[in-house]
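Colleagues,

Please find the record for the three-part complex below.
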Amino acid sequence: MKYQDEYRDATVARKLQQAIADIATRPWTIMEVCGGQTHTIVRYGIDELLPEKIELVHGPGCPVCVTPLELIDKAIAIASRDDVIFCSFGDMLRVPGSRSDLFDVKARGGDVRVVYSPLDCLKIAEQNPNQTVVFFAVGFETTAPANAMTIWQAKKRGIDNFAVLVSHVLVPPAMEAILSSPSNRVEGFLGAGHVCSVMGLEEYEPLSQQYQIPIVVTGFEPVDLLEGIYRCVRMLQQGQVGVDNQYARAVRREGSRPAKELIADVFEITDRKWRGIGLIPDSGYRLRGEYQQFDAEQRFAVGHLDVLESDKCLSGMILQGIKKPHECPAFGNQCTPEHPLGATMVSSEGACAAYYNYGRLLRSKGEPAEPYVPSPTH
Amino acid sequence: MCLGIPGKVVETYEEHDVLMGKVDFGGVSKQICLSMTPDVQEGQYVIVHVGFALQVIDEAEARQIFAFLEAMDDLDELSVGNPESSAETLP
Amino acid sequence: MTHVADVDRSTCPIPRNDYERVLLGHGSGGKLSADLIQRVFLDGLGNDVLSALEDSATLSIGSDNSPGSDHRIAFTTDSFVVKPLFFPGGDIGKLAVYGTINDLAVAGAHPLYLSAAFILEEGFEIEQLRRIVASMDEACTLAGVTLVTGDTKVVDRGKGDQVFITTTGIGLHRPSYHLSIHNARPGDQVIVSGTIGDHGITIMSTREGIEFETALQSDTAPLNDLTRTMLSACPSIRLMRDPTRGGVSSTLNELAVASAVGIELDEASIPIRPEVHSACEMLGLDPMFVANEGKLIAVVPENNAQVLLQAMRRHPLGRDAAVIGNVVEDHAGMVVMRTLIGGQRVVTMLAGEQLPRIC
């Protein structure tokens, strides 16, 4: 695939690995914000290729992981109704609610469907006029334009048997929450590439200045991550702050104007609760007044639900990069992908799942991997 | 943020007054909403996330890292996918 | 100034342990399936033959039970529930015939006879049934087996998804071959007969909600001629398996555990069609977990690997055969892959159902 294969090239990766090793003279702690980046790092074994002094910690950029428990429970309640076709991205189906998950609802006869794009919901709504199609609108800013367009089209085309359960969260407030915490260890950020494709770089500049921290907006392929880490380490070594754009092939400084306009038309900023972290003011989206008719929470008046919390899962500390998955006592025994205790183990983007699935159970501490020399046959 | 992959726009059309396109991802293709990239031309590449194109890929910027590494080190060793190609002739 | 809520407070739900009901994940060939087999089936029915969990059972019939006797039979069964019934490259009938033949073939046996049981939903079109049967007939002829007995049941409309087919097969073991999932040894090479993920991605391309356009076809095919060729060229083959549901990763993990060995894979060596690769990228799927049909994995002593590979590549069903890894003493029971960029990754078994993702 063009614009992908070349970013997975072993020789290029090795050169970047060497470049990082050459310039890093001090220990640095860098956080990659986005779950997709965590996935790549663990799936390709990138952090093992870095010098020991560079520590990568994994951030809360997993919208699946941070969707509040109450909302999962509401989703389950709505999906269990006979008059509802509940549509969701695949990621959400196994996230545990207080007592159950969406997969369970499906097993008990609920009409729960996986969709690739939110627009698919409109087709389903038109084909099933006697049911209400409810879409679980989860995501960061990256997914907001798609969800906004879908809601905008529903209104324009008069598709009334459609509603959304909104759980949108925003990256800059999350980064600020981490930076302002007394236990923060993060010295540099790899910014979320696709979030910035939509929103641009501007809102990260004040953050960078206020906390005096370099932010390198980074892509998702192994070469992107390695280049992003290289650029971040270089800034740290040189005492530079500011926003750097590694992912310039897909990120413009101003972001995407059509996308931002669409978001502003349909959504407005609101406070949001983040699972594992707590309430962060002005950290999410909700539907604007003119689109309230599509709000599933209002339409189905799900009301107060008894939310069951337990004590074992450390998702919160992992989402902030304070603990690593293998430092959690439940990791790998009580908590595994088949029997997840928390969202970070369920979502394939969650740090715990990534660690588990790519086998960090046996990760030995402290030994950096040998630089990989590709054989001539490659 | 999340899963966004590069694809080539092979045709564009309007559906419900919205710009749509057929995008090819190396042998599989899908109908993608192009409303966020209204100026995209057939033959250009876009980043696609949940059925929507987010941005047109900037070809010049895409070559930067390879140019940077060339400048940093020996050009000969660089074999990006096809051993016979050099950075200037990326497919 | 915003500050994070008390970091020591955790917000997690009660853990889900045993599921009370069957989930789709129990059928996907990964860990949930394995769990169901252990907890329910082996617990209730276990015996030595069943518990070996080979793709087919090896039975001795008659008074002469020595390992070299001519009366060792291979016996296997499989059910087919695929939707859609007709897909690019095949249909449920073909799958039902080839799937069972392949379980016999990879055991090293010569497939001979099949039975077929049909569960039909009231209202299912007879014309479609005719098409399926014609396809099965063609498949049996191509593979050189005879379908000798069968059964049909009909259930009420809404109680059975159009048609389910169960086929059972019998084959004859050749006296000199004793392939088993317990046979792998450190030093052995792991070979795959061709590109991975073709079948699963073809099926996925037809799924409502995630469908996409592609020229890709299912790789369903009878492997008995290939296996015969392979064993002829290389009698020292340790074992063969066909990686169906759960993908190559399930098969390799099963054999790593059964043989108590580690497996090391080289990602760059794994053959995959560009379309399968692209579809997996688009949907966020891992090709190692995607179902295959007319493909097999073979484990062979190192010295014989090249001879076997050449023999496979001369066969139409083995053109893309490749060595994808080797068996080691380390990390017994685990499969570790060296990634494209040189890092390491453990390839675990699929937990439940692999779902498309956006993150």
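Residues 22 and 31 of chain B are 5 Å apart (CA to CA).

Comments are welcome before we finalize the supplementary table.
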